[in-house]
Structures are given as structure tokens and as C-alpha cells.
UniProtKB/TrEMBL annotation:
Regions annotated as coiled coil: none
Family as reported in the entry's similarity comment: Belongs to the universal ribosomal protein uL24 family.
Annotated ranges, domain KOW: 2-29
Key words of the record: Ribonucleoprotein, Ribosomal protein
The protein, known as: KOW domain-containing protein
Length: 113
């Protein structure tokens, strides 16, 4: 799966499209993730005893992992991520959009000079 527990993600489809949140739970067998304060559903809870009243609770429902994209708080951009293995390093993440913007900036500096 392309996201991990604790990652900041942006929802790219569905009724919560455009919202940003943190992953709180991952369900691996069906590739779904639960994101804090996103995709809230209403659950009606029945009372367990006579003196305890029933209640209506908002819960976070899972979203398929294909409907979220990693989000960078620093650069305020959602991007696809590529993984590279370098010498003596376990793995490095490449933010595709950040790399593309950096290349455009360097090209603009070269053209201006």
C-alpha cells in the first residue's frame, strides 16, 4: 500500500474530495484507510440498560486507499510518490510533483540568466 499509519493524505475523490487528514487506521485485507475527521457516518447506538439512554454517534468510516494521495504540509501539495533504493540506504521517497516544480524553477533561472 502506498500510504502508512500517521501519513498526511488528501482525499482525491468522493464527497470529502479536497479534505486533508491523518491516517489513524489501515485495513490491509481490503486496502482501506481510516482518516481522522473525514468520511464521518452517523451510527445509532441502542441503550444497553434501562437507565442508560440511546445515542447518535459520528464515526469515521474507511475509504479505499486509491482515493487518497500523500500530502506534504511543508509544500502544501498532494503528489504521487516514487521509491528508489540507493547504495547503503534502505529506501528513499521521491515526491513527483515537488521534483517537477524544482526542475521548472531551475529551468526558469537558467533561461533568465
Amino acid at each position: 500500500m502506498h500510504v502508512k499509519l500517521g501519513d498526511t493524505v488528501k482525499v482525491i475523490s468522493g464527497h470529502d474530495k479536497g479534505k486533508v487528514g491523518e491516517i489513524t487506521e489501515i485495513i490491509k485485507h481490503n486496502s482501506k484507510v481510516v482518516i481522522r475527521e473525514i468520511n464521518l457516518k452517523t451510527k445509532h447506538v441502542k441503550s444497553r440498560s434501562e437507565d442508560e439512554p440511546g445515542q447518535i454517534v459520528k464515526i469515521e468510516a474507511p475509504i479505499h486507499s486509491s482515493n487518497v494521495m500523500l500530502y506534504s504540509k511543508d509544500q502544501k501539495v498532494a503528489s504521487r510518490v516514487g521509491h528508489e533504493t540507493l547504495d547503503m540506504v534502505k529506501g528513499v521517497e521521491n515526491w513527483k510533483k515537488a521534483v517537477k516544480e524544482k526542475e521548472k524553477a531551475t529551468e526558469a533561472v537558467v533561461v533568465a540568466s
